[in-house]
Amino acid sequence: MGNNIFQRAKEAVSNLVGKHDEQEHQHQNNPQHEQLSAQSNDFSNEDISVAENIISSAMADSSDAERQQLAELQKELDQTKNNSQQ
């Protein structure tokens, strides 16, 4: 059947990383709109908090292999969060 919370964590991080990558792509292809785009992130602090909470919840019900993947997802989320603040 699979671990639904684990799947939700993967989806949440994937969505945030995808939004960040899209924003970076727009900056590279259209530098004139960089100032406007910098003022409005494509994702909010609430989106990040939700993803972090899902990861945390998934840790409790996961196998060792899933926990390892969740730790990687947390690192990826942290990198995305740090890159969006620059």
TrEMBL record:
Give the start-end ranges of region Disordered: 16-86
Enumerate composition-biased segments (Basic and acidic residues). 18-27, 64-79
Q: What Pfam families is this protein classified in?
A: DUF3813
- Which residues fall in a compositionally biased region of kind Polar residues? 36-47
Q: Which InterPro entries match?
A: DUF3813
Q: What is this protein called?
A: DUF3813 domain-containing protein
Q: Which organism is it from?
A: Fictibacillus solisalsi
